[in-house]
Amino acid sequence: MTARSVRVSWPRDLPGHAWASSRPLSFVGASMMFVLVVALIGLLLDPRVITGAPAWLKPMKFAISISIYCSTLLWMLTFVRGRPRLMVLVSWVTAIALFVEMVMISGAAALGTTSHFNVSTPTHAAVWYTMAGFVALVWAMNLLVALLLLLQRMPDPAFAWALRLGLLVSLVGMGVAFLMTSETPAQERAADAAGTEAPIEGAHSVGVKDGGPGLPVTGWSTTGGDLRVPHFVGLHGLQALPLFGYLLALAAPAWLRRGHLVALVWTAGLAYLGLVGVLTWQALRGQPVISPDARTLGPLLLTAGTAAFAVVLQARRGRRP
Question: CB 80: neighbour CB atoms within 10 A?
Answer without folding.
Answer: 16
